[in-house]
Predict the 3D structure of the following.
Amino acid sequence: MDLVERYLQAVSHWLPTRQAHDIIAELSEDIHSQVEEREASLGRPMTDAEVEAMLLERGRPMLVASRYLPQEYLIGPELYPVYRFVLKIVLLCSGAPAVLALVSLIVFGPGGQDGAPRAWLSHIGQLWGTFVSAVFMAAAIVTLVFVVLDRVKDRAGILDAWRPGALPPVRDPNRISRVGTSFEIAFGVMFLVWWSTYMGSLRLVDVRELSVTLAPQWLWFYWGFVAITVANIVFSCYNLVRPRWTMTRAALRLVSDAGGSALFCWLMVLHPVASIAGVHIPPDKGIALVASINEWMARLMPYAVLVGVAIALGNGYRMFRLNSERMRRLVGSSGQTPPALHAAGSRK
Amino acid sequence: MAPSPDTLDNLRLELRRGCLVVAVLAALRTEQYGYTLRKTLNEHGLTIDESTLYPLLRRLESQGLLTSQWREEDKRNKRFYRLSPDGEATLEQLLGEWDGIDRSIRAVLKEHGHGSRRTLSASR
């Protein structure tokens, strides 16, 4: 019976002191009743192995004890979805700067070839430490806030205060915001005026103290950007009149954005600065400065490609979504499946 | 597609949870201690393990539906439970609720689920 006593002691360890004695007395009685009945049917005392098998069937002491305890949690099921949502955003915001810095160091760092590899590795180590501590700190603070909210939510009536009228309208991803389009047009026109006024000459800066000259290829970039900006302004004006995405317009936007991205990436490797000269700049310093600017622009090329790919993916997704909706409508009209919620909303 | 054994187990567990409370209250119209109560329920096809039964008994007692008393029997101290007057009234209400649910489910099955109704009838 030593095993039974050890089992009871283990269960008792996980119980609140005030209730432990009572619960263990009852559990002990139950086990002894079971042993007694079993021994009567066997006609002999139970072996240790049989007792062990019986206790194994009753379950791990901690689990048995937990059944007697009230269900406890730090953040309850009502607030947990909000907690998870907020945690994701906070983790993203707190971790993103460190990740960006880490990627920059890997892309632009000496890479252990011609620079100081130990210092570089040490920077990466420091950044990794910053990333981990930022993420842990953010997670701990968010968790703590939600633990407190969970304790006071009933008294403060946090979850009761809501109005159906305050819910956001049904999302219609195919509707083009007229406010946004108006900003696009205004920004496009202002940019075009500035661009054609100041950026159309190869002599970018030409004053007495300083002169910056661009390479002849710059003019290709200049006129390319003029063409794309004009096309975008016309496109936005049409969107203002008919504010809905169609497959044709989504494809046009993809082409226009891809063209802009390609031009920008080309600019990065163009070596656009031809010369820098000035009263206070010695010629050799000017040459070094030009080389340095052009080199850094070329180094930024991977970022320009990444941004271009992200924009193209966004446009591609819009086209995919429009096509899926069109297919759903076709199938829906043949009575096989109901149309999507936002498609229904958009008909209003 | 047939549900996974886990899904079925969880659904059965949910279905049985409330029924076990009614069964325990009904069985304790006669005074019993935990071990014999468990055996009684087992004999009637309502298997319940001790780590479910004893916490349930304590909860029902704390809700005033049961009373308990430590008494010596066969040279061992045992805790005997029985239904309290409040428990008796609650049991009556729960049995009324049970009949209502039973009637409703049968009505739904009669209208929509011929196959299920036959299975239910066959199992009774």
